[in-house]
């Protein structure tokens, strides 16, 4: 019956298009759907490490930031950690220009984070909020405590409260 269905799908023009070949190959395989011929393997999520491109989700002027260094941990940064990054793409009239070295707080990470109640939070992308521009030392520099932008777009996890990033939480549109 499976072979008849596969042959029916392969004759003429079908709405399924190229799926007929994959379907017939699946039926001919010995271990069925366990071989993973139709469904791709799930990608393993890792830390935010050197070279990772992150999306800037504030109105500081940066669009994309590449991680240069994680300021906590040897493996890389997680949700709520501070990173040093280089701005790879920016809007023309923003506070942050392309090529600047900035500090940022990771507000969304694709790596799952387990909460105290046993649930996990994981996002589709890696995102950062710019909290300071790395410049030469001067007396009036307040470090990297306050966000550069005045708005934060998209969801922000409530774990930021534990990391003492309350200003980011107040600027966020949606807290998860």
TrEMBL record:
SUPFAM superfamilies: Ribosomal protein L14 (SSF50193). Keywords: Ribonucleoprotein, Ribosomal protein. GO terms for cellular component: ribonucleoprotein complex; ribosome. It comes from the Eukaryota. CDD domains: Ribosomal_uL14. Pfam families: Ribosomal_L14 (PF00238). NCBIfam families: rplN_bact. Belongs to the universal ribosomal protein uL14 family. This is Large ribosomal subunit protein uL14my. It comes from Cardamine amara subsp. amara. The lineage of its organism: Eukaryota, Viridiplantae, Streptophyta, Embryophyta, Tracheophyta.
